[in-house]
């Protein structure tokens, strides 16, 4: 099919999109009463007649609308002269801002003629007549209210007028005024309407204009755009992406492009990184700057924008709060903010913990500003305070003692300045590590747990007495050999050692008031641990059975997790079971080693937050399956390093076992 480009109606052809027509109006034979357009805005208003004789037209509703709009009087200003809503106004809006890719096509005798569209307008009903009805209603109400007052009172109502002279408009004020919605509306209203004449579909003028949709000449001169060589046509379809290369996507202000960052000088790179990250170890900073960067140059640059706190670099306050800026929360100037943040940084050079109330009391800043300072470099811990977010970097401190000494001298100067500004007392200058530790004990000693158990038993003495009678009756009927002199029973005390007894206080309620599984009569002092010989064997057998079944399911457990599982096991046992005789940590660990397990000395990092029980790792050395050798090799690997890459494990297993393991087998061993 030959395609031709028609130019006769170029920049004159519009596409009107009418709404769904009501039953009383058909666009084919409707009478267009008037039409007008604003060419610059491409805005059109059409006034169309409504067929009031159509059976779907509600005459009473039309009369009511006309009465509300025009009232009872009829003159030239009336919207509906026939006292009936017999017309409807449609107002246009642009359907698309860019219509350059749309065209009207006419197919005739094997030829396709295209005319580019100048605009696509959607027509919607205009309800300005309702505004006119509201205005009429307000006028009538004002007339009724004004009729009651006399003319003399109206003459006496004199108001004072204040005359003001407008100031000369600045350039910024003029730009804001020009861009305002009110100014744009005023500009649009100033454009005059151009009245049009509507010609129907079958009118001779319409037939004549419709011929312009066809290309007037088929010569090469008028259709050079559509006659191209194959290479030119391909170039038109796929133009070179020159503009795409030049135009770079605009990233959000808080997103940092590493590709763009590395095009900047080294000092600017470090400043941007520190400003975004705020706290960073030196090793991380070197990894972000890319390979080949001189560490000496980095050290020289980082000292200009950051300070050393606990072996890590923290961005300087004046970088975050430049001169002539202020707090977004309180409006405090940048100089005061820098002083307050320097105080927080200095506190972290003295201790890992900082209390927010103390900072607020010294700096006299609002809580939001203090919270911002702390969030830059620390993490909140419940009932403890704010802890510095990174561990102490011993490697950097050992490698660069000269830098550490220089930073220490700088902090001494900052401390002297802070002492003068804030009038710091001695309690502010000395670290409170010992006080913090004593105020918040992390570990409850075994002696304290025993004392708590004694107090608990004495409180529940009445209930214990009843349970004792029941227990005695059951023991007499079931097992006469298990009779015991309950009055001589005492709570067992383990020898003083580094091992701490297990915390079984949470399960006292489950044991029906039993202390270590046994009842007491008058008082509970301490258990001497002397049990009948048969009972000791039963306790060992029960404990061994529990440990064996647990490690066959889990293979690797920390002491903390094993104690948790043992407490759950105790909770599921009936009252008076042999395991309630009192199992200490040492007994549990000895039984683990007796059942074929080994302790794996995993070299956890020194700054880990794990408890001592979480650092003791036990593993089943021989399970009797085909993976014993693989498991032992894996445990040996973890005894040298607590974090190992998967490919290292795979290679080590293949070398030690002499076989090439596939991924599924390695996964099974790791699991």
Structure report:
Residues 432-671 form the DNA-directed RNA polymerase III subunit RPC5 C-terminal domain. One of its GO terms (biological process) is tRNA transcription by RNA polymerase III. This is RPC5 polymerase. This protein has 29 helices and 18 strands. It is of the alpha+beta class. Among the domains are: 2-50 and 86-142 and 179-212; 258-422, no CATH class; 534-670, no CATH class. It has a six-stranded mixed sheet, with no helix packed on it. A hairpin with a 2-residue loop joins strand 11 (306-309) and strand 12 (312-315). Helix 14 (334-350) crosses helix 18. The longest helix has 22 residues, at 401-422. Mean pLDDT is 77; it is low at 243-247, 433-442 and 480-531.
Keywords for this entry:
alpha+beta, elongated, RNA_pol_III_Rpc5
Fold topology:
Layout: E1 2-5, E2 14-17, E3 32-38, E4 43-49, H1 59-70, E5 87-94, E6 103-108, E7 111-116, E8 119-125, H2 128-146, H3 151-156, H4 171-179, H5 181-190, E9 194-196, H6 204-210, H7 230-237, H8 242-246, H9 258-261, H10 266-277, E10 279-280, H11 282-288, H12 295-305, E11 306-309, E12 312-315, H13 317-320, H14 334-350, E13 353-354, H15 356-363, H16 367-377, E14 378-381, E15 385-388, H17 394-399, H18 401-422, H19 426-429, H20 433-439, H21 446-459, H22 461-478, H23 533-554, E16 556-558, H24 559-571, H25 585-594, E17 597-600, H26 612-615, E18 617-620, H27 628-638, H28 646-657, H29 663-670
Parallel strand pairs: 1-7, 2-8
Antiparallel strand pairs: 3-4, 3-9, 4-5, 5-8, 6-7, 10-12, 11-12, 13-15, 14-15, 16-18, 17-18
